[in-house]
Amino acid sequence: MRIYTRTGDEGETSVIGGRVLKDDLQVEAYGTIDELNCFVGQAISLMEAESLQDLKENMIEIQHELFDCGSDLAFVKLSESKYKVGPDKVTRLEQWMDAYMEETPELERFILPGGTLLASTLHVCRTVCRRAERRVVTLGREKEINPDVRRYLNRLSDYFFVVARTANARSGVADIEYVRSKKVFGRKK
Asked: Hey, CA dihedral for 43, 178, 156, 90, is it positive or negative?
């Protein structure tokens, strides 16, 4: 099987139900999600320690869900019956975050991205996820989209933040506080 088709040589690509320009907002949105998925794969490759296996399993599930997000955005015209991403995935991310937050020190100030290599990579995932979310918001102003994709990406960027802090905590590495900030956070019980 050949991987190349030559059908995109003139600047168009196929989506489900038609063809669009390669710089179409739709392609930009699901392409950014694909980019995010690559960084998630990179983060997974850094999760060798036994203490990170639960995170690794979650991240592999997230990779599948990112494909689902891209699929939900790849239609010329959508029908809700074909959506793969629903509110249950958003709720599950929230549950994971609540559990992982219990492992991290109280957050009082903004933190700088960093710490372990894994945590740094998860912060890259967070920022690429925010960009994907922005692309999906822009696309949603132009055409009908599955709103749960936008919600999922919004919650997923928060998840990456929490998991980056969890990775640091499990490795015994402190987050680096942004020292020019006043104390702006406090745990709500």
From this structure: positive
Q: Which CATH superfamily hosts domain 13-177?
A: Cobalamin adenosyltransferase-like (1.20.1200.10)
The three-state secondary structure class of 136 is: helix
Token output for 136: 């999906």
Q: In the structure encoding, which two tokens stand for residue 60, read together?
A: 């592999």
User: What pTM was estimated for this model as a whole?
Assistant: 0.90
Cα(37)–Cα(17) distance, rounded to whole angstroms? Answer: 24
- Amino acid identity for residue 48 in this structure: E
- What is the per-residue pLDDT across 47-103, written as a single tens digit (0 to 9) for each? 999 999 999 999 999 999 999 999 999 877 766 567 899 999 999 999 999 999 999
Length of the chain: 189
